[in-house]
Amino acid sequence: MELLFVSIAAGILLLIVILFQLALACGAPWGSIAMGGKYPGRFPNHMRIAALLQSLLLVLIGVIIFTRAGIILSAYLDWSRMAIWGVVAYSLVGSILNLITPSKWERRIWAPVVLALLVCSSVVALSA
Fold first, then answer.
1. In Å, what is the CA distance from 56 to each residue of 18, 25, 38?
2. Which residues, including other chains, have CB under 8 Å from residue 78's CB and lie 6 or more apart?
3. Rounded to an integer, what distance in angstroms lies between the CA atom of residue 128 and that of residue 124?
4. At what angle do helices 104-126 and 45-68 cross, to 10 degrees?
C-alpha cells in the first residue's frame, strides 16, 4: 500500500513537471522559472525543443517508477530494478541544481518538487 501511494505521488509530481515543460515548449512565458532563469519570457526555439525532450524523459521516468512499483509492464520488472537507480540519480542531480540555481522562484517552486521526487524514487528503489 505504501509503495502504491509513493509511486502515485511520484506520478503526480511528474505530471506537474511534464505539463510545465510542455507549456514551455508551446511558448508559455515562464522561462524565468526554468533553466536558472537564463531565458526570461518565452524560450527560444532550441530551448522549446529541449523542453519537449525533457517531457519525454519525464514520461520514461514515470514508466520506470510505475514498472518498479509493479503497477505496469510486469515483464520489465527485472530491468526496472537497475533503471530506478538512474531515476534516483537524476532526481538527486536535479535537486542539487534546483537548490543552487540563481532563480529565486525556481528554488521556491521546483526544488521542493524535485526533492519530493527524490524521496519517492528512493522509496520505490529500496522496495522489495
1. 8, 12, 22
2. none
3. 9
4. 30
Name which of 91, 101, 110 is nearest 6 in CA terms: 91
Classified as helix, coil or strand, 101 is: coil
Task: Supply the DSSP symbol for 44.
Answer: P
Instruction: Encode pLDDT of 71-92 as tens digits.
Output: 999 999 899 999 999 999 999 9
Over the stretch 11-61, which tens digit does the pLDDT of each residue have? 999 999 999 999 999 999 999 999 988 999 999 999 999 999 999 999 999
DSSP state of 43: P
Q: For the chain, count helices (H), then strands (E).
A: 4, 0
Residues in the chain: 128
Question: Residues 86-110: what's their mean pLDDT?
Answer: 94
CA distances to 4, 19, 45, 48 from 65, rounded to whole Å, are 10, 18, 30, 26
Q: Do 29 and 6 form a contact (C-beta atoms < 8 A)?
A: no
